[in-house]
Amino acid sequence: MTIDFPIPDSSRREPGIAIVGVSGGAIDDVAVERGVQALKKSGLRVYNFYQPDQKFQRFAAADAGRVAQIHAAADHPDVDIVMALRGSYGLSRLLPLLNYKKLANSGKCFVGHSDFTALQMALLAYENKSSVAGPMLCDDFTREDLSEFTLTSFFDCVRQQRHTVRFDSADADDILVSGVLWGGNLAMLTHLTGTPYFPQIEQGILFVEDIAEHPYRVERMMLQLHFAGVLARQKAIIFGNFSAYKLAPHDNGYNFDEMIRYLRSVISVPIITGLPFGHIKDKVSLVVGSQTTLISERGVVELVMDYQF
To answer: Between 69 and which of 49, 176, 276, 296 could a Cys-Cys bridge form, CB atoms 3.0 to 4.6 Å apart?
Structure first.
């Protein structure tokens, strides 16, 4: 598939994007170069802080090296966007080591999802810093069949101060609410609950996604947030993509839809499904920490996000 990349505005400096390995190391280092070339083709100047020879165990580098990467990217005068190499695991180790004030005051746009949710929540909790829940180099830019949908949403998001996402949700009630949009990977959110890295958002709009988590595990994590009093303080909960799990014969009819039905019976906050976000090829970009209006009407949901980085 051929992607028509955005044409840079010739009157402006081409944005600089830094690639940082703050979680897992790249599985295919050859593909990393393919992703770098895809970013360059889009009109971005690429600064790759990830070095394959610095891999440590399953991580992109040792803890100190990964902290150094993101701090260096924040300090770089020609970098506008800081994008995660990939997710997997590793940011939890870095949370006590990061200089959140440096990151927030840098004015950079931090982008990623999955394990990157930990950093996004910490930035929101410590500095009220907005960031983008969106693509990462692997595999959103390294794949041979790039998603025009993903790239269009991402570039629209980082080049504006208002971003709108629309999607269909057949089972959504008609509602109109406004609040801070926040959330991300459900496992990371529950992992951070009760820690200083978990933002205390009142009357917000929470979105969640995950991969390879059976519906009972999703239910259990959502109940943890519910029992902790987090969900009752929100105006709406939006479910993104939950894929790559396997049901078993002994589930006996218990599936994702039944899990959602149960959650709606015990959680009074409106629950909306169908958000195209998560560990999927075609994903929207969402601004964590943005002032967002959610409009749900006749099965069509719209999120209007206002923000600055």
So the answer is: 49
Find the largest Cα–Cα distance for the chain. Answer: 62
Please indicate whether residue 279 is annotated as part of the active site.
yes
297, two tokens: 């009407």
Length of the chain equals 309
Which residue in 23, 42, 106, 114 is the catalytic one? Answer: 114
Please provide the average confidence, as pLDDT, over all residues in the chain.
95
Distance between CA 95 and CA 113 in Å, rounded?
16
Is 92 known to be catalytic? Answer: no
296 is catalytic: no
Instruction: Tell me what pLDDT residue 166 has.
Output: 98
Q: Enumerate the β-bridge partners of residue 162.
A: 306
Mean of the pLDDT values across residues 213-230?
Answer: 98
**What burial class does residue 183 get, using C-beta atoms within 10 Å of its C-beta: 0-12 exposed, 13-18 middle, 19+ buried?**
buried
Record the tokens describing residue 146, joined without a space.
């790039």
* Phi and psi, residue 243, nearest 5°: -135, 175
Annotated active-site residue in 42, 113, 209, 285: 209
Cα 274 versus chain centre, distance: 16
The pLDDT of residue 7 is above 70: no
The pTM (predicted TM-score) of the whole model is: 0.95
Of 137, 154, 186, the C-alpha closest to 27 is 137
- CA separation for the pair 41, 27 (Å, rounded): 23
